Each structure stands twice: as structure tokens, then as C-alpha cells.
Automatic annotation (TrEMBL):
Lineage, top ranks: Bacteria, Pseudomonadati, Planctomycetota, Planctomycetia, Pirellulales
Taxonomic superkingdom: Bacteria
Keywords: Membrane, Transmembrane, Transmembrane helix
Annotated organism of origin: Stieleria maiorica
Leader sequence residues: none
Entry protein name: Uncharacterized protein
Membrane spanning stretches: 33-55, 67-86, 118-137, 143-164, 176-196, 255-281, 341-362, 368-388, 409-434, 446-469, 490-515, 521-547
Length: 559
């Protein structure tokens, strides 16, 4: 082994050991003891659930499971590919600042650095494999082969994702537009196929709940179709290995193919990375030869636009009270930065809007409105926070700058959260207006549910940021903590939704028992909206308290 590779292996080993020790110390820290206890409880419950509940359910067909494993990887890859081509700024394989400093300036080949980056996804792939094996163990005959196949498929998926990301970064503007059109057409065709299969397997006039349950079968039908399976040819050996019923001579071939596809993908990543770097350099040389030395700030049109925006911001700040004016600067900063990826945000909310409005196609006027409301609430809690990271979660590396601003905690929170909340509320009311025009629920229903859903948006983003400030993490963080965090957050949101539905049902029964018919509806609407907004305001105050206690020296996580 050459000296640079030897030192890199030593560095990787030492860093892994250091991170294990650091994770153990952080779990025992008094500041994180609550999060550590929740993580341990979640793991214990998950493992017990796997052995006691999952083992007693009806097993899935091995052929269907194989199609799910291979086709599901492709569906996720299609989603990532569409999102990647519509993102203006492409990062260099998500290297951290420390990796750029120590590895980018080291005497290492680019291929070595690319291979090192793939190695960093192994641990997160192992954790995901652990959770999937527990969930799928009752459906297969050989748990060891299941773990091997799932692990190989996940590593291959992450490697292909990085390949596509680097490929897009090297495309010219013309080819990038072509990629956007082609991938958007593929995604649109998949959506049309989803609704077509959903309509085919669900009898006309069924309850919207039946459509929701059958949507999983429709997604499975897309993953099982011939077109997706042809695109999933790289994952088919791993899927066959994971669902092996009887061990034969073909099993060894499947295992060899599953394992060998990973280094082949790494080799492809190295070649694509080299091509992308050369393409980017050639474009820069062409700009220099053409005499295009101007930066964005020197463009007269863009400079005039910036001056107009600055004057508009000054006028808005002058109209607001002095205490609110300081928060406007943060809101305006978020609005300027959102222009770079407005297309991604529009796409992220277009699909949820269509899904929320899909109950209107069932032909049943009785409970369509309820399912539209439920869909908006689920999208607000589950999809809006990851799609709109225009708050403290995006500014972890700028915490020192934010802390130095002469703002009270509540002003900083309002400045950071106003824009994502406004975008989410716009999505809610747009969907409600379309649904109300079809269902005609009446003004009390529209005002009541609109007010509660708006409060839910405030509560969701305030809670997300409060938890982030209490237990911060980097944007592209991987590892045990992130996997457990994602699962615990999902379960917590599901529990919160169930508790909110139960509380609303209790409040309805109280209003009906204490007030007469003409009075019960306005009392119910007023009380429900007031209660939800009280919780939302309380969540904002908790977020402000978390920001006030945020300690840069202790709370900033290392990279």
C-alpha cells in the first residue's frame, strides 16, 4: 500500500474510533440525556415489535417482495434525479469543509477521494439494513441473505445517486434543460400510471379511505411494471438474493453479482467525476476566452434589481412597528435566497396538492372534505418541514453571525420562520379553496379548518426548529443518531395527529351537549381555532427559549 493510501486508511480508522467515543460521550451528556433515553426506548420497542408483532403477521409473497425491493430503489432514484436536475446549485459529492481542507489539499488522486466518500455511506447503510431486516425477516427464509442483499442494494443506490449528482454538475445549460424535460416527463408518466392503477383496482364510488389503502398497492404496481424493472436491472441480483427461498448454485452467482456491482459503480463514479471536473473547467476557460469576466454583482440589470429590492425592503420596514422592523431584514434575506431553488419548492408542493385533492375524484360527496383536510394536515407535518428548510436548520454554519445580531430571541425566531410558514399557509389555503369550490362545506367549515391548519403550520415549524436548536445536526449528517431521529420524529408526529383528532372529537361532543344547535357550531369553531393557536404561540415561545439558551461552544455539532 502506498504511503498516501496508508495515511488515508489510518485517518479513516482513527476518525471512526473517535466518532464512536464522541457519540458515547454525547449520549451520556446531561444536555442530551433526554434524547439518549428516547433513542434507547425506541430501539427496544422497535426490536420487540419486530419479534412479537411482525412475526405474527401474514407473510408477503417472495416474488412481490423482490419486485418491491428492486423497483422501490428505482422510484426513489427517479425522485432524487428530478429533484437534482431542478436544483440550481450542485454540491461536490457533499464533502464537509474539513474533508475539503484535508483531502482536497492532500496528495491523493481524485479517484481515491471518491472511493473514500462512498465508504462514508457504509455505516448509514448498515443501520438502514438493520431496521429493514427486522421488518422483513418474517417474509424470507434466510435472514443472512436478506441482510446481504439489502445492504448491497442500499450502497449501490447511494453510489448511483452520487453518480447522477456529479453527472448533472458537468452538464451544459442546454443539456441540463433537456435532462429536466426528460426526467419531468418520466415523473409525470409515473404519476399518471399511479392514478391509473389506483382507479383500476378501486371500485367506483368507494370510500376515500379505500383509495388511501389501495395507493400502496398502486405504488407496488408501478414498482413491479416492466419499465421500472428494466431500469432496476442493477438491483435485481440483490433483490433475488434477499428473497432467496432455496439455496442453490444460482445463489452464489446472485451474491457475487450483488457485491461486484458496488465496486463497478464506484469505478463509474470515478470516471463521471473526472468528466464533470473537466467539463466545468472547460466551461470556465470558454468564459475567459470570450471575455466574460463579470460576476453577478457587476451585471447592471441585476444590480438595478438588487437596488429596487433594497428600496422595497426599506419601505416595508418603515411601515412596520420598530420592534418588527428588525425581523423584516431576516425575512427579506430568506426571500432573496429562495430565488435559487423556487422550482424545487414548487415541485415539492405540486405533488402534495394533487394528492390532497385526489379524494375529490372518488365521486362521494359525504366525506371528501374530511379526507382533503386530513391530507393537508399530513403534508403540513410530514412534507413541508423537509421541503422548506429556510430557517435555523439551514443556518447552522452561520449561528455565530445570527447570535451577533441585535435581536431579541422572539424577533430572531419570527424572522427565521415567517417565510416557510407563509409558503405552507399558501399551499393550505390554495388546496382548501379548490376543495371548497367542489364540496361546498360552508363558511364555518372553511374558516374553522383553515384557521386550525394555519396554526398547525406555525406549530410544526416552531417545534421542528425548537428540536433542532436543542439537538442540532448538520444538513447532510448520516449515522445512528439521524436514523433514530427520523423514526422517532415520524412516530411523534403520528401520535400528535392522533391526539389532535381525539381532542377535536371530545370538543365536538362537549359543544353538542352544552349548547343548542345554532350556538354549538360557532362555539366549536372559535374554541378549536383558539386552542390550536394557543398551542402554536406556545411553540413559538419555546423555540425562542431554545434559541436564547443555544450555546455555540457546546451545541454546535462537529463535522
Amino acid at each position: 500500500m502506498s504511503s498516501p493510501h496508508k495515511h488515508l486508511s489510518w485517518l479513516t480508522l482513527r476518525r471512526s474510533l473517535f466518532r464512536l467515543r464522541r457519540a458515547a460521550d454525547r449520549m451520556r451528556s446531561p444536555r442530551r440525556i433526554v434524547a439518549s433515553a428516547i433513542a434507547v426506548i425506541f430501539l427496544c420497542v422497535y426490536v420487540l415489535n419486530g419479534f412479537l408483532i411482525l412475526a405474527s403477521r401474514r407473510t408477503a409473497d417472495p416474488e412481490s417482495l423482490r419486485l418491491w425491493l428492486s423497483g422501490g430503489m428505482v422510484l426513489y432514484l427517479i425522485y432524487h434525479a428530478v429533484r437534482c436536475v431542478w436544483t440550481e446549485k450542485q454540491v461536490d459529492m457533499e464533502y464537509t469543509d474539513a474533508e475539503k481542507l484535508w483531502l482536497g489539499g492532500a496528495p491523493l488522486k481524485r479517484s481515491t477521494v471518491a472511493g473514500y466518500k462512498v465508504n462514508t455511506v457504509f455505516f448509514s447503510a448498515l443501520l438502514k439494513t438493520f431496521f429493514l431486516v427486522i421488518a422483513l425477516a418474517p417474509d424470507v427464509q434466510h435472514a443472512g441473505l436478506l441482510a446481504t442483499g439489502v445492504f448491497a442494494a442500499l450502497v449501490l443506490l447511494e453510489t448511483v445517486r452520487m453518480i447522477w449528482q456529479r453527472l448533472v454538475s458537468g452538464l451544459s445549460r442546454r443539456h441540463l434543460i433537456g435532462a429536466r424535460v426528460a426526467l419531468s416527463a418520466i415523473a409525470f408518466a409515473a404519476i399518471l400510471q399511479f392514478f391509473g392503477q389506483l382507479a383500476a383496482i378501486t371500485p367506483s364510488g368507494s370510500q376515500p379511505g379505500v383509495y388511501v389503502l389501495n395507493s400502496f398497492r398502486a405504488i407496488g404496481g408501478i414498482a413491479s411494471c416492466d419499465a421500472v424493472q428494466w431500469m432496476a436491472i442493477g438491483w435485481r441480483p440483490a433483490a433475488l438474493l434477499a428473497t432467496t427461498v432455496d439455496i442453490t448454485s444460482h445463489t452464489a452467482v446472485q451474491m457475487l453479482a450483488s457485491v461486484m456491482l458496488v465496486p463497478f459503480a464506484i469505478f463509474t463514479l470515478v470516471r463521471v467525476d473526472g468528466w464533470a471536473a473537466s467539463a466545468i473547467l472547460d466551461r470556465e476557460k470558454a468564459r475567459l476566452r470570450s471575455g466574460d469576466f463579470r460576476g453577478p454583482s457587476s451585471d447592471p440589470a441585476e444590480r438595478a434589481g438588487e437596488l429596487t429590492e433594497d428600496r422595497l425592503a426599506d419601505r416595508i420596514e418603515a411601515l412596520l412597528p420598530r420592534r418588527m422592523g428588525d425581523s423584516v431584514a431576516l425575512v427579506w434575506r430568506q426571500a432573496l435566497s429562495i430565488r435559487r431553488y423556487y422550482g424545487t419548492i414548487l415541485f415539492s408542493f405540486l405533488v402534495p396538492t394533487l394528492l390532497c385533492l385526489s379524494p375529490l375524484l372518488t365521486g362521494r360527496m359525504g366525506n371528501q372534505w374530511a379526507f382533503v383536510i386530513a391530507g393537508i394536515a399530513l403534508c403540513t407535518m410530514l412534507l413541508a418541514p423537509p421541503a422548506l428548510r429556510l430557517d435555523f436548520r439551514r443556518d447552522l454554519k452561520r449561528m455565530l453571525l445570527l447570535r451577533s445580531l441585535p435581536l431579541r430571541p422572539i424577533q430572531a425566531v419570527l424572522g427565521q420562520l415567517t417565510l416557510p410558514i407563509l409558503i405552507t399557509v399558501t399551499f393550505q389555503w390554495t388546496t382548501l379553496a379548490i376543495a371548497a369550490s367542489v364540496c361546498g362545506p360552508g363558511w364555518p367549515q372553511l374558516i374553522g379548518w383553515g384557521g386550525m391548519l394555519s396554526a398547525l403550520a406555525v406549530f410544526t415549524f416552531a417545534t421542528e426548529n425548537a428540536l433542532f436548536l436543542a439537538y442540532p445536526h448538520h444538513e447532510h449528517a448520516q449515522g445512528f443518531g439521524m436514523v433514530v431521529r427520523a423514526n422517532v420524529m415520524f412516530l411523534g408526529k403520528a401520535t400528535l395527529i392522533a391526539a389532535a383528532v381525539g381532542a377535536l372529537l371530545v370538543w365536538v361532543s362537549i359543544c353538542q351537549s352544552l349548547f343548542s344547535d345554532p350556538l354549538s357550531v360557532p362555539v366549536y369553531v372559535t374554541g378549536a381555532v383558539a386552542a390550536t393557536w394557543s398551542l402554536a404561540v406556545g411553540a413559538m415561545m419555546v423555540t425562542a427559549w431554545c434559541w436564547r439558551r443555544f450555546d455555540i461552544s457546546a451545541d454546535l455539532p462537529p463535522e
